[in-house]
Hints:
Layout: H1 5-14, H2 16-22, H3 25-32, H4 37-64, H5 68-95, H6 100-105, H7 110-125, H8 128-150, H9 159-166, H10 168-188, H11 199-220
This protein binds the ligand Cc1ncc(C[n+]2csc(CCO)c2C)c(N)n1.
Protein name: Aminopyrimidine aminohydrolase
Keywords: Hydrolase, Thiamine biosynthesis
Pfam family, one: TENA_THI-4
Amino acid sequence: MTYGTTFSALRKAAGPIWQDYTHHSFVERLGDGTLPQAAFLHYLVQDYLFLIHFSRAWSLAVAKAGTLDEMRYCAGVVHALLHEEMQLHVALCGEAGINARQLEQAEERPENLAYTRYVLDAGYSGDFLDLLTALAPCVLGYGEIGNRLSHCGETTPYADWIATYGGAGYQHLCTEVGALLDTAVAQRIGADLAASPRWAALSKRFTTATRLEVGFWDMGLDP
Ligand SMILES: Cc1ncc(C[n+]2csc(CCO)c2C)c(N)n1
C-alpha cells in the first residue's frame, strides 16, 4: 500500500522504527487473536483519550491551513473522528461494560500524554506542514496495519477493529491524507522536499511521532 510520494520518503527516512511500529507484537497479536482482552480494553480506553486530543490536533490543522480545500478536508477528519472513530471505541468498550463517562474519566498514561501533546505542540509551534508530518504516522501507519491484517485471513476476536482500518472507507481516507500531504508540500516547498532546508526537521517530526506510536503499543501490552 502506498499513500503518496511524501509519505514514502518520510517512511523510508524513519528506517527500522517504522517496522517496529507497524509490526509491533501488539499488532501481530491483534492479527492472530492471541492478544489478551484486558490488554485490548486498556488500549481502547487510552485510545479514546488519545482521539480526543487528535480531534483537537486536526482542528488546529483547520486553523493552520493555507487554503479552503485544506480547511474543508481537515474539518472532515475532525467530524469523522468525533462522530465515527470514537463511536467504535464507545461501542467496543460498552460491550465490555465500560461506559462513555468512564472512558472520559480514565487517567491518561504518560505514553499517551507524551504522544498527543507532542503532536499538538508541533501544530502550536510550527506551521501546517509541521503538524501534518506529526499526524501522518498515526493515520497512515494504521492504514498499513489494517490493510495487512485484513488480508492475512486469520480468525481473531479483533476482526471488527481490523475491518475498520482495513476496510475500503479507511483505506480511501489514507489515500486522501497522502494526497493532502503531497499537495501541501508542493504548494509550500515545491517538487523536491528532500532537497529543501525543511527536510531534516520534517523528517525528524515524522520519525519522532513514529517512535511515540511504538511507545503507545508498548503501553498497550502493559495494562
Ligand atoms: C495510537 C493511535 N494511533 C493511530 C490511530 C488511528 N487514528 C487516530 S486519529 C486518526 C485520524 C483519522 O480518523 C486515525 C486513523 C489511533 N486510533 N490510535
